[in-house]
Amino acid sequence: MNKLTSITQTTELNNGIQMPWLGLGVYKTQDGAQVEQAIADALEIGYRSIDTAAIYGNEEGVGRAVASSGLAREELFITTKVWNSNQGFESTLKAFEESRRKLKLETIDLYLVHWPVAGKYKETYRALEKLYKEGYVRAIGVSNFLIPHLDDLLGSCEIVPAVNQVEFQPFLTQPDLQSYCKDRGIQLEAWSPLLQGNLDVPLLQEIGRAHGKSAAQVILRWDLQSGIVTIPKSVTKSRIAENADVFDFELTAEEMASINALNEGRRLGSDPMNFNF
């Protein structure tokens, strides 16, 4: 893969759209002043990708931050997601209009099915295909889909998802899913990359010391060198800046392998094969 040396670098999705490798996640960031300030800080630092979702309840704040940023719309990459209770064909189209209204955006860069709700996600994705064909979204994809869900979806969809956003962190590397997505041109994206703040991992700290970096920066660099788009979240300007300061060093092949070896299939979030929300 390309040498990643700048926050401005992008990956080309399977439909030719460019998506930044690093973005700001706003899960659990409060609507209003908190989310607006976090985004303003991130944009000042050089971030251009913001990841929200209907369920986060902060799309309006994201919209205000985008509007007041002074940046041209095409410089920004905005992702949102349809929530589980709104899944289904017509209800997804309605949910999309609601997200678009809150974000005050004509087009969304990436729209995702948030979770693979049994019996509903195919109809939901069909609505995303309609939105894509009509030009309301620049790319469509899924979130929290594992191989069985993707197999099922790819058996009937017209448009291969551009992105699959999943839990991906040193204890959960999902190598089979990585290979599956790579083979089919689906860009993997990591949510909650920073172990929900549980960074007291001796190996990561040791590698960090070797590069003059924190354990968090080591994980984010590992994401990028693994070809995974990553969206760490923070509301603290210094942390937002630290998370972006990962383009001036490179992990060795040995370091990459040793981090991969931490994998034990351990989830910190919900299991996409067994969730009830």
TrEMBL record:
<dbReference type="Pfam" id="PF00248">
    <property type="entry name" value="Aldo_ket_red"/>
</dbReference>
<keyword id="KW-0560">Oxidoreductase</keyword>
<dbReference type="InterPro" id="IPR044500">
    <property type="entry name" value="AKR5G"/>
</dbReference>
<dbReference type="InterPro" id="IPR018170">
    <property type="entry name" value="Aldo/ket_reductase_CS"/>
</dbReference>
<keyword id="KW-0521">NADP</keyword>
<comment type="similarity">
    <text>Belongs to the aldo/keto reductase family.</text>
</comment>
<dbReference type="InterPro" id="IPR023210">
    <property type="entry name" value="NADP_OxRdtase_dom"/>
</dbReference>
<feature type="domain" description="NADP-dependent oxidoreductase">
    <location>
        <begin position="28"/>
        <end position="264"/>
    </location>
</feature>
<dbReference type="InterPro" id="IPR020471">
    <property type="entry name" value="AKR"/>
</dbReference>
<protein>
    <submittedName>
        <fullName>Glyoxal reductase</fullName>
    </submittedName>
</protein>
<dbReference type="InterPro" id="IPR036812">
    <property type="entry name" value="NAD(P)_OxRdtase_dom_sf"/>
</dbReference>
